[in-house]
């Protein structure tokens, strides 16, 4: 009885302890991502090197320019380390991060981590001047979600294991596959933190399962 009580106490402590969320800080508005997760009670760490992935409960891959980000990642085994992290721990990717996470990238083709079973087209909605803010329906609790699209990619295909949580013109804009969450918009640019909250719930659930093998 005492042992079970001790286990419950440990589980309760783990659920209340702040999660450590890394934010890939190579390009893009990574500071905005950090602020959004901090506002939800997480501890955030800016990640610029492969060895800084150690000890993280989850990782955010922000937007930016995917080819430029690749150049940074191809140094010192960072790309490979990121792939291993995405295979074992929760990752939340937005815009260019979504491109890097996908299994297939088109227009033009580009190297990617291949973690998310999806095909993504780069800059599918036009140039910077074509950026827009839309309020669209979502599967998240709380009703429609404001989405900021800036030179956004478009998800044109998802695998059977990928759940679509929101769409724009029938194309997925927010998807989840196991411990992976990806958005083609910029949730860090609005005051609505429901997407961040979902990711924290995913991280907490994954952490409660124990160490990854």
Folded structure, characterized:
- It is a single chain.
- The longest helix has 15 residues, at about 1-15.
- By secondary structure, the chain is an alpha/beta fold.
- It has helices at about 1-15, 30-40, 65-75, 80-90, 95-100, 195-210, and strands at about 20-25, 45, 60, 90-95, 100-105, 115-120, 130-135, 145-150, 155-160, 165-170, 170-175, 180-185.
- Strands 2-1-3-4-12-11-10 form a seven-stranded mixed β-sheet.
- Helix content is about 30%, strand content about 30%.
- The two termini are about 30 Å apart.
- The protein has one domain (about 1-210): Rossmann fold (3-Layer(aba) Sandwich).
- The protein is built from six helices and twelve strands.
Q: Structural class of the helix and strand makeup?
A: alpha/beta
Shape: globular
What is the end-to-end distance? 29 Å
**Unreliable residue stretches:** 5-13
CATH homologous superfamily annotation: Class I glutamine amidotransferase (GATase) domain
CATH class assignment: Alpha Beta
Q: Mean pLDDT across all residues, rounded? A: 90
Biggest β-sheet description? 7 strands, mixed
Strand order of the largest sheet: 2-1-3-4-12-11-10
């Amino acid at each position: 009885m005492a042992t079970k009580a001790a286990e419950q106490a440990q589980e309760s402590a783990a659920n209340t302890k702040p999660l450590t969320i890394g934010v890939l800080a190579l390009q893009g508005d990574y500071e905005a991502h950090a602020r959004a997760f901090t506002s939800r009670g997480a501890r955030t760490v800016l990640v610029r090197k492969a060895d800084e992935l150690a000890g993280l409960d989850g990782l955010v891959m922000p937007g930016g320019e995917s080819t430029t980000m690749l150049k940074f990642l191809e140094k010192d085994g960072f790309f490979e380390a990121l792939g291993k992290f995405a295979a074992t721990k929760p990752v939340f990717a937005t815009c260019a991060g979504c491109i890097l996470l996908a299994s297939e990238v088109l227009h033009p083709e580009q190297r990617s981590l291949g973690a998310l079973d999806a095909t993504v087209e780069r800059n599918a909605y036009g140039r910077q001047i074509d950026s827009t803010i839309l309020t669209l329906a979502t599967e998240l609790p709380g009703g429609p979600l404001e989405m900021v699209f800036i030179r956004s990619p478009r998800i044109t295909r998802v695998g059977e294991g990928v759940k679509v949580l929101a769409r724009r013109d029938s194309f997925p804009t927010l998807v989840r596959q196991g411990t992976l969450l990806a958005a083609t918009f910029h949730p860090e640019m609005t005051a609505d933190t429901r997407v961040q909250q979902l990711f924290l719930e995913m991280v907490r659930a994954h952490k409660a399962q124990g160490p990854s093998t």
